[in-house]
Amino acid sequence: MLNITIQPGDNTNLTFAAFEQYEIPAPTGGADVEGDNHLLLKFDDEEDAITYAEQLENLSNQLDDKDTPQYRAINDIIMSIRNDEFVQSYSR
Questions:
Q1: pLDDT digit string (tens) for 30-67?
Q2: Distance CA 53, CA 39 (A)
Q3: Are 18 and 25 in contact (CB under 8 A)?
């Protein structure tokens, strides 16, 4: 089991509530709230997290307006997954 907490980034104030509001699909393991409304994403393993990031990349490419909070939130999630130390170790 791999859990990745998404901290609010510079581009967006992504919280669990915003994740639900933007209707971003949850990973197969689900999503939950952690601490002060931080977004917690749950994955079976690193490969599952990478697959989810790729799915979000496809979703972000389909969005017409690249200036929306939804687009920035999706990209914050993708970057958080890609920067996770376990995902990086797995990808090497």
A1: 999 988 888 999 999 999 999 999 999 999 999 999 99
A2: 15
A3: no
pTM of structure: 0.90
87: helix, strand or coil = helix
- In angstroms, the CA 48 to CA 16 distance is 20
Tokens representing 70 are 């939804």
Both structure tokens of 86: 């376990």
* CA quadruple 31, 35, 37, 38: dihedral, nearest 10: -60
Reported as half-sphere exposure (CB side, CA atoms, 13 A), residue 22 has a value of: 25
